[in-house]
Structure to design on (68 residues):
């Protein structure tokens, strides 16, 4: 399970699932047109992706490696 954690306050977010197929989202990253790397959670079946959660005004981090 991907767990996102706030480096400032320690808040954490557990599993998130795809509303289409119900599968757990996988931690991944994308690179924007300007070259910035952004953390996302994506559906393993390709139904889409969402930006990583934010807390205390910053992206939360995930210790699990990219994809699976």
């Amino acid at each position: 399970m991907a767990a996102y954690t706030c480096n400032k306050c320690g808040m954490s977010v557990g599993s998130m699932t795809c509303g289409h197929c119900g599968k757990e989202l996988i931690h991944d990253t994308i690179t924007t047109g300007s070259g910035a790397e952004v953390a996302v959670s994506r559906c393993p079946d390709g139904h889409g992706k969402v930006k990583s959660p934010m807390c205390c005004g910053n992206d939360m981090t995930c210790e699990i490696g990219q994809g699976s």
User: Anything to note?
Assistant: The chain is about 0% helix and 35% strand. The two ends are 11 Å apart (CA to CA). Residues 4-62 form one domain. The beta strands are 4-5, 12-13, 26-31, 37-42, 49-51, 54-55, 58-59, 61-62.
